[in-house]
């Protein structure tokens, strides 16, 4: 599978860890030390810290925006923050070429009750930062979040061992966590794993190297984030274009216009290219690719475009354009790993709506094959249900055919969500293993 590789200008990051491991403080430190905070924001945080009696500048307040979060001292919602480094941001210390990098960082909840929010925040990430409290060591939530990062196939995992100042910057404490998690991560197949000892509160090894830990010879966290090479999950070999909208302008200037709008989910689209329309199986060719800014000669994954075809075919929302020689599987039965997000548990026989790319159908759970113990990675084949925040393997059937790939091949066409038809709540997120 050919992919886009290189030092991407934009890095999407998700943070995770147990409650009070310091995720919000770490993000606040990155924002503060990269000069990404407006003066009025900093003044507000300073005043709020004093009013709360914190005794220090509480940088966690930059991301813990909800009143309930501030009162409880935990992160409930997923907070997204943007910052950049390099000459454009006034930060010149890290990049020799001065280019720096742009970042979108998601502060995801650490409490087990909000694991579903963590799944949402991490679903599009290029890199995951899992924080571990150096005093407490590896927890169940640490393993849970590392396991979810692995399930979501996030290319890079950074374990930031935080609060090193509270263990006297002990190399032994750091090494014990490294040894335990390295062995565990190997069992779940984590591809790229990096450990960095930090103190988010005091800034040790966050932006600048810490003189308090001379035994650590790796880069500080920000330098690692600036230079990690991202092999994007964009499959350029297998064309996948789910149709989101049929464009028929009711205007005399575009009387005969018929286009199919959507986002390229895989492969490359070019005028003149032969495509197959699924699930009908009809073949045609691409006449043109239109955008708001004008026509394109080539379209890549994540670009939103409107495709015009040579032939007038019966195509609607939820259909897919694909390569005739390398098409996705058209199936009504799926086997998938599901992260359950609802108070009402998943059980065999449960009926839901399934949203896959741009297609929505009804689905019934045929079987719960097993539930995963994220602490031991054991499979409980006798489990009768998946409760809130639990993860398991399920088999399900759909009322309409879906055009799927394995999640390992294409994160877009290999994922779905389950929806409660009565409440319209999202109750589960699935990663497809196979179908038939």
Overview of this structure, please?
This protein has 436 residues and is of the alpha+beta class. It has three domains: 3-234, P-loop containing nucleotide triphosphate hydrolases (Rossmann fold, 3-Layer(aba) Sandwich); 240-322, Translation factors (Elongation Factor Tu (Ef-tu), domain 3); 329-435, Elongation Factor Tu (Ef-tu), domain 3 (Beta Barrel), CATH 2.40.30. It has seven helices and 23 strands. The protein has helices at residues 23-33, 39-52, 67-72, 115-122, 140-151, 171-188, 221-227; strands spanning 3-6, 10-17, 79-84, 102-107, 127-133, 156-162, 192-197, 230-235, 240-242, 245-247, 259-263, 274-278, 282-291, 294-296, 304-309, 320-322, 329-340, 351-356, 359-372, 379-380, 391-404, 415-419, 426-435. The strands form four sheets. Strands 9, 10, 11, 12, 13, 14, 15 and 16 form an eight-stranded antiparallel sheet that branches. Helix 5 packs across helix 6. The longest helix is centred in the middle third of the chain and has 18 residues, at 171-188. The protein is globular. The model is unreliable at 3-8, 65-77 and 92-96 (pLDDT under 50).
Structural class: alpha+beta
CATH level 1 name of the largest domain: Alpha Beta
Q: State the share of residues found in helices, binned by percent.
A: 10-25%
User: Count of helices?
Assistant: 7
Number of structurally distinct domains: 3
CATH architect. name of the largest domain: 3-Layer(aba) Sandwich
Secondary-structure element pattern, one letter each: EEHHHEEHEHEHEHEEEEEEEEEEEEEEEE
Mean pLDDT: 83
Give the tally of β-strands. Answer: 23
**Oligomer state of the chains in this structure:** single chain
Specify the CATH homologous superfamily of the largest domain: P-loop containing nucleotide triphosphate hydrolases
Task: Please mark out the parts with pLDDT under 50 across 5 or more consecutive residues, or reply none.
Answer: 3-8, 65-77, 92-96
């Amino acid at each position: 599978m050919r992919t886009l590789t290189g030092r991407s200008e934009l890095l999407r990051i998700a943070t995770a860890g147990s409650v009070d491991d310091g995720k919000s403080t770490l993000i606040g430190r990155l924002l503060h030390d990269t000069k990404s905070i407006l003066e009025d924001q900093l003044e507000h945080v300073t005043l709020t810290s004093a009013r709360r009696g914190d005794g220090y500048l509480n940088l966690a307040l930059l991301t813990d925006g909800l009143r309930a979060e501030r009162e409880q001292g935990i992160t409930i919602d997923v907070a997204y923050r943007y910052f950049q480094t390099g000459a454009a941001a006034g930060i010149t210390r890290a990049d020799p070429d001065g280019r720096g990098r742009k970042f979108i960082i998601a502060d995801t909840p650490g409490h087990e009750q909000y694991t579903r929010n963590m799944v949402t925040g991490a679903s599009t990430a290029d890199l995951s930062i899992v924080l571990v409290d150096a005093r407490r060591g590896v927890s169940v939530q640490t393993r849970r979040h590392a396991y979810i990062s692995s399930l979501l196939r996030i290319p890079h995992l950074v374990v930031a061992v935080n609060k090193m100042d509270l263990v006297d910057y002990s190399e032994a404490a750091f090494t014990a966590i490294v040894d335990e998690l390295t062995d565990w991560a190997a069992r779940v197949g984590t591809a790229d794993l990096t450990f960095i000892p930090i103190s988010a509160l005091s800034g040790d090894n966050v932006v600048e190297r810490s003189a308090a830990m001379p035994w650590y010879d790796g880069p500080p966290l920000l330098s690692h984030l600036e230079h990690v090479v991202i092999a994007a999950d964009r499959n350029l070999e297998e064309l996948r274009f789910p149709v989101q909208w049929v464009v028929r302008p009711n205007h005399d200037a575009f009387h005969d216009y018929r286009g199919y709008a959507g986002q390229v989910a895989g492969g490359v689209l070019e005028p003149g290219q032969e495509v197959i329309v699924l699930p009908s199986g009809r073949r045609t060719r691409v006449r043109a690719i239109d955008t708001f800014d004008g026509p394109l000669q080539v379209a890549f994954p994540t670009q939103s475009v409107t495709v015009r075809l040579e032939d007038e075919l019966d195509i609607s929302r939820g259909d897919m354009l694909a390569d005739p020689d390398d098409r996705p599987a058209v199936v009504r039965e799926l086997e998938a790993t599901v992260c359950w997000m609802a108070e009402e548990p998943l059980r065999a026989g449960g009926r839901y709506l399934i949203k896959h790319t741009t297609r929505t159908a009804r689905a019934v759970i045929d079987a719960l094959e097993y539930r995963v113990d994220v602490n031991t990675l054991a499979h409980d084949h006798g489990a009768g249900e998946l409760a809130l925040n639990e993860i398991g393997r399920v088999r399900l059937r759909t009322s309409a055919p879906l055009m799927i790939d394995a999640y390992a091949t294409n994160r877009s066409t290999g994922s779905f969500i389950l929806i409660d038809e009565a409440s319209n709540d999202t109750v589960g997120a699935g990663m497809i293993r196979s179908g038939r």
